Amino acid sequence: xxxxxxxxxxxxxxxxxxxxxxxxxxxxxxxxxxxxxxxxxxxxxxxxxxxxxxxxxxxxxxxxxxxxxxxxxx
Length: 74
Prior knowledge:
The two termini are about 15 Å apart.
C-alpha cells in the first residue's frame, strides 16, 4: 500500500528567501520503483543521500526540481 499523497500541511514551508534551505523530507521515505522519486519529497535517492554535502544553492535547485516533479505526477 502506498503512503498518502503529501499535502502543503505536511511539508515544511520552503521559500528561497530563507537563508538556509530546510530538508523537504516529511518522513514518508517510499521510493517509487518506476520514477525513482521519493513519494514524500520527490527527490531521488542520490539527492537524498547527498543532501548534507550540497551547498545552499544546490539544495534550492533540488527543491525546485522536486516541486516540478510532483506537479508532473498523476
